[in-house]
């Protein structure tokens, strides 16, 4: 049987996109730069570079800024080029259990607008349409045009399928099988990329925070819920169904606490913000004494404040959850062998009251070869990690940023 003809057209198109990405990246990172300099740096032919540059100028991604210095050998001075960061926009949307944050970034990732609102508790479709309205309003308030929106990163606190853009389950929102990508894309007329909070925070911490661009990083995301974001060579590890990192729904033997996901005994029920509060209530019911006993209601922040003021019961509840989180971190270290573990989410702000027992538990449970050289750090970006991750993921997936690399 005769073999198929090589697909030369496809190969040509791929090479064209690769060359375009090389030129755009060089202007973006090395500008101001001339066409001749681009040709030398990329080893592309000058006519190829000129054709790509003309195309990028026509699209508004690159602009000419005037002549540079004349070469020693004489001749006309080169026309310098620079990247036009405001040519396109990306939106990062973090839909949290309590609050939703929207950040608009330019094509270089610089934030140009932000909005916050209570997370809508309406029907998921209506909630997403309200989010889209807020995205448009944020862009307009910055004096920019929605037509420039190139990509949207949507981040949610639950199981998400990156490949389909569906929120499979977000117990703390009450969402199940919600077509996030389809709904937001229809409203905003831009491609939408859906990730969970741990994945987004891992990307942000790796590029702009505690990760120092480690590349192989695990982020333990502990807040209202518990999940993990795994980076391998700087890329998010999604898994076949997009649900990799949902460590919070692993069962803990002997735990009979019901979980919002519908199962019983999940790690999240004993290693999260609500778990700290439940631990205090159990200790008080057993006859323990605490300054928190006089409060009608309290949350993890109140427990932390009490512990910092010397409340032993509150400190013990935090330490217990810290040890459980350390067990989770040891699983990540044994399974993925990262260079760095970052503790993110709302509980990271507790500091050493949580991190000291976490580190001690890791030392007890992690395999010595896997633990060798691993550093455990708290988040640097804090509550900004999720929305910055949403912006950065949108930027990475957008057509203007390494187009071929992220299309695989």
From TrEMBL:
- InterPro entries, from UniProt? ATPase_NBD (IPR043129), ROK (IPR000600), WH-like_DNA-bd_sf (IPR036388), WH_DNA-bd_sf (IPR036390)
Task: Please give the Pfam families that the UniProt record associates with this protein.
Answer: ROK
Query: Record's family?
Result: Belongs to the ROK (NagC/XylR) family.
Instruction: Please give the name of this protein.
Output: Transcriptional regulator
Organism, per UniProt?
Answer: Dactylosporangium sucinum
